[in-house]
Amino acid sequence: MRYNGLFANVPHFPFYLKLFCFPALVLILIFSFAAQAAMPSGDTDEVKKLLKQATKLRRSGAFDQAETILRQAIEIDPKRSDAKVELAYIFTKQRKTREAYDLAFKVAEAERQNSRAFAARIL
Questions:
Q1: Which is it for the CA torsion 38, 43, 49, 52, positive or negative?
Q2: Which of 122, 41, 121 is nearest to 85 (CA)?
Q3: Interacting residues of 51 by C-beta distance below 8 A, sequence separation 6+
Q4: pLDDT tens digits, residue range 69-116?
Q5: Burial of 30 (0-12, 13-18, 19+ CB in 10 A)
Q6: pTM
Q7: In order of start, what are the domains of the chain with their CATH numbers?
Q8: Are 123 and 91 in contact (CB under 8 A)?
């Protein structure tokens, strides 16, 4: 008996696609939940506030205070490359070229797509 309802003209999903799509969907769900669990939740807001404060201090010329705040941000979240690059930029403004180069080189080596790290390395 054939179904003559709303989806009568839709071809049946081939069996081999069912075998492929279901495990793929399960893997996507697993990886998305794992990525959410790996993301830190509370510290990112604090680090963002510290980065914003350090940027304001840098723009006003208070490099020593900005350096202290950025070191705090890196201590909270050592994986934040934007804080490291900002600190390298402050080092260049303070004429601490060796520290700036070392810090920017580490970020540029880890993240090849981070153009700001390469720019801080050149300055």
A1: negative
A2: 121
A3: 70, 73, 80, 82, 83, 86
A4: 999 999 999 888 889 989 988 998 898 988 888 888 888 788 777 666
A5: exposed
A6: 0.61
A7: 42-122 (1.25.40.10)
A8: no
User: Could you tell me which residues come within 8 angstroms of residue 119 by beta carbon, excluding any fewer than 6 positions away?
Assistant: none
pLDDT over 90 for what percent of the chain? Answer: 28
Q: What is the mean pLDDT of the chain?
A: 75
User: What does the alpha-carbon distance between residue 66 and residue 45 come to, in Å, rounded to a whole number?
Assistant: 18
> For residues 53 and 73, what is the distance between their CA atoms, to the nearest angstrom?
11
Q: Which helix or strand (DSSP H or E) is residue 75 part of?
A: helix 63-76
CA 43 to CA 66: how far, in whole Å? 19
Q: At what angle do helices 81-93 and 115-122 cross, to 10 degrees?
A: 20
CA distance 9 to 24: 27
